[in-house]
Design a protein that fits this description.
about 10% helix; Acetoacetate decarboxylase-like; 7-stranded mixed barrel; about 250 residues; 5 helices; mainly beta
Length: about 250
């Protein structure tokens, strides 16, 4: 099957927060269930560069390179081959109205368009030189941001680790207006990650995501790292049958 969208995702800042599962349960798409790591549920604030974007192989003028910041959580669906681990989104911020509109109309993805800017200082970071990343957006008349500094060398995530749980998801799930759910496959190689420190999240949590997320997003992240990213391919979605299976 031909991908619907191809792009390169680079320098993904991931600030990960433990959250009460009851905060997320009303949002979980039909046909999926909340996924956890060692019995703990997480949301992640993620900022990254979206580069060389092509839709069905065609570049759209002025919409190839941009930033995205999203708040995401983790779900799973039982496919024929076993559990498919995936992500779902509370909200996704991009700077282009056309991108947000198409995503909302065609896929019911929770995109909004806001002014955005970034700082990427990653020269020699792959050799261990500390790097700095910031992704910012303007809402409610003020600039907000998430940021981090990298330390050390990027390394492959350890099997079974929190880094692997956060980064290695290859499915996306989106609730639909009629109560159903769309599933789409995301293809990319395994990412390496830098550990991160000096993290910061300056955000109008209630205004953007609702008061239910205040407690977790105002707390200290459970973990923070930066994924190097790669080329990605997103495949056309398909509707899920209702219900969640049980793994054997």
């Amino acid at each position: 099957m031909r991908p619907f969208l191809t792009a390169t995702w680079r320098y993904l800042v991931m600030l990960n927060y433990e959250v009460d599962p009851e905060v997320l349960r009303p949002l979980v798409p039909r046909g999926t269930e909340l996924d956890t790591w060692n019995g703990r549920a997480f949301v992640s604030m993620v900022g990254f560069r979206f580069l060389d974007t092509r839709v069905r192989g065609l570049a759209v003028p002025f919409h190839q390179n941009f930033d995205e910041v999203n708040l995401r959580y983790y779900v799973r669906h039982l496919g024929p081959e076993g559990w498919r681990r995936g992500v779902a989104f509370v909200k996704e911020i991009v700077p282009r109205l056309a991108i947000a509109t198409v995503a909302r109309v065609l896929y019911n993805e929770p995109y909004v368009a806001l002014p955005m800017r970034h700082t990427v200082e990653m020269r020699d970071a792959e050799q261990g030189t500390p790097g700095r990343l910031e992704y910012a957006w303007k809402a409610g008349g003020r600039w907000q941001h998430l940021s981090a500094r990298t330390r050390g060398l990027p390394q492959a995530s350890t099997p079974g680790s929190e880094e692997e749980f956060i980064t290695e998801h290859y499915w996306g799930y989106t609730p639909q207006r009629d109560g159903g759910c769309m599933e789409y496959r995301v293809e990319h190689p395994r990412w390496s990650v830098w550990q991160a420190d000096a993290t910061e999240l300056e955000c109008d949590v209630s205004g953007l995501y609702g008061s239910r997320f205040e407690a977790c997003l105002r707390s200290k992240p459970s973990s923070a790292f930066v994924a190097d990213g790669s080329e990605v391919a997103v495949y056309p979605g398909a509707r899920l049958a209702s219900g969640v299976g049980t793994a054997a």
